[in-house]
């Protein structure tokens, strides 16, 4: 029988400040008041990004802060675990069994098509508690049922966790049959790029000498797994913090600018972000979807939130990840700068227009508005 591997997670201030926010999750976990640590089980051998992240996410909750971890495939040992992820052939949230390999498993995140991995299962059941805890740690008042927490839960799944679910379940980004029918081929290999590859590289190589003592060999393998869990966990924490502290507050800024866009163009084609730029694409597309039309072509914002800062003109892409603009800046302006661009565009104060035509700049807001007016008319 394998000895449980002690894995104590030193949480940040979110541990103490977020305990109340995660109270409902703690109740669901049926802890014994903290008299002993919870035992988490996952499989030994070659490890992957999904269980490495699943273990990290569990340890973001106070109930698991002093948990121990055992990596084994022995059913008798797994039966002693409070929570089991990515092994055991069972998905039963009431008993905290979160495997996805069994025949017939087809669970997905709400409104998403991708079959879940162990990371997706843990995020499905505990993601809102984790998010509420980190919001509370940042000084915000949040519970699992708050609308903002639910919004972040869905957004972080789509931006981070879903790709890991797909990777672990062998689901391609594009339909392989459609790609083959279109005659498309990759321009370069991206197999080594991504969190899954990063975790995979932490596994022992096939020809790496193993320790003669089985217990020592398992200890070394477990140490590698802990490194993987920590590294992918750091990326997950950064993702949560970004969406909670930067993306979410930007929502109100974009909503205000969207409501006032007719002040700058009667057809609502120009969005002006007062003060400074914020992450605007997701919010703009959502607002347009709610309105039922895609109207905004250009977004104006200052380079820095200070008096006299230059202004940028950014073209709205056809979609969030597209490099194709709805209406690029005029071709005759592209690749020129300063006085030369002033003469070509017939506008004073021009700074530049990118050679691809998706962004440009002017020294003043009034100059940027003139550039936009000419671009709209072109």
Shape: elongated
User: Within the largest sheet, what's the order of strands?
Assistant: 1-3-2-4-6-5
- Fraction of residues in helices? 40-55%
Name the assembly state. single chain
Overall strand count: 11
Can you write the helix and strand succession as a string? EHHEHEHEEEHHHHHEHEEHEEH
Which structural class fits the helix and strand makeup?
alpha/beta
The number of helical runs is 12
Major β-sheet annotation: 6 strands, mixed
Question: Percent of residues in beta strands?
Answer: 5-15%
State the end-to-end distance. 74 Å
How many domains comprise the coordinates?
2
User: Mean of the pLDDT scores?
Assistant: 90
Return Rg in Å. 25 Å
- Catalogue the unreliable spans: 6-23, 31-35
Q: In a few lines, what is going on in this structure?
A:
The chain folds into two domains: 36-245, no CATH class; 264-377, no CATH class.
SSE layout and pairings?
Blueprint: E1 5-6, H1 14-17, H2 23-29, E2 39-42, H3 49-58, E3 68-71, H4 75-78, E4 83-85, E5 91-92, E6 97-98, H5 118-137, H6 147-169, H7 176-181, H8 195-200, H9 214-259, E7 270-273, H10 281-291, E8 298-302, E9 311-315, H11 338-345, E10 350-353, E11 359-362, H12 365-377
Parallel strand pairs: 2-3, 2-4, 4-6, 7-8
Antiparallel strand pairs: 1-3, 5-6, 8-9, 9-11, 10-11
List keywords for this structure.
378 residues, alpha/beta, 6-stranded mixed sheet, 5-stranded mixed sheet, 12 helices, 11 strands, 10% strand, elongated, MYG1 protein, MYG1_exonuclease
């Amino acid at each position: 029988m394998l000895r449980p591997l002690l894995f104590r997670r030193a949480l940040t201030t979110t541990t103490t400040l977020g305990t109340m926010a995660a109270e409902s999750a703690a109740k669901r976990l049926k802890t014994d008041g903290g008299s002993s640590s919870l035992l988490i089980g996952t499989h030994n051998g070659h490890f992957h990004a999904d269980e490495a992240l699943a273990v990290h996410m569990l340890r973001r909750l106070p109930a698991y802060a002093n948990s121990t971890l055992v990596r084994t495939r022995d059913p008798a040992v797994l039966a002693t675990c409070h929570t089991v992820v990515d092994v055991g052939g069972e998905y039963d949230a009431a008993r905290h069994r979160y495997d996805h390999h069994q025949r017939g498993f087809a669970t997905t995140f709400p409104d998403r098509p991708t079959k879940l991995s162990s990371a997706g299962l843990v995020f499905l059941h505990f993601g809102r508690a984790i998010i509420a805890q980190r919001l509370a740690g940042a000084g915000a008042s949040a519970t699992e049922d708050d609308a903002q927490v639910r919004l972040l839960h869905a957004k972080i799944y789509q931006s981070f966790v879903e790709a890991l679910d797909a990777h672990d379940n062998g689901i391609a980004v594009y339909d392989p049959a459609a790609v083959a029918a279109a005659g498309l081929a990759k321009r370069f290999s991206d197999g080594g790029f991504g969190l899954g590859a990063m975790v995979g590289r932490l596994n022992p190589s096939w020809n790496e000498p193993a320790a003669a003592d089985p217990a020592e060999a398992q200890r070394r393998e477990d140490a590698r797994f802990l490194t993987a869990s920590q590294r992918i966990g750091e990326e997950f924490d950064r993702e949560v913090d970004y969406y909670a502290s930067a993306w979410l507050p930007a929502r109100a800024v974009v909503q205000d600018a969207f409501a006032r866009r007719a002040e700058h163009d009667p057809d609502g084609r120009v969005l002006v972000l007062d003060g400074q730029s914020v992450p605007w694409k997701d919010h703009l597309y959502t607002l347009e979807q709610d309105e039922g039309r895609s109207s905004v072509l250009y977004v104006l914002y200052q380079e820095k939130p200070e008096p006299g800062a230059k202004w940028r003109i950014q073209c709205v892409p056809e979609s969030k990840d597209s490099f194709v603009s709805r209406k690029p800046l005029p071709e005759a302006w592209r690749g020129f700068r300063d006085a030369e661009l002033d003469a070509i565009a017939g506008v004073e104060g021009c700074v530049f227009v990118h050679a691809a035509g998706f962004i440009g700049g002017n020294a003043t807001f009034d100059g940027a508005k003139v550039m936009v007016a000419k671009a709209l008319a072109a």
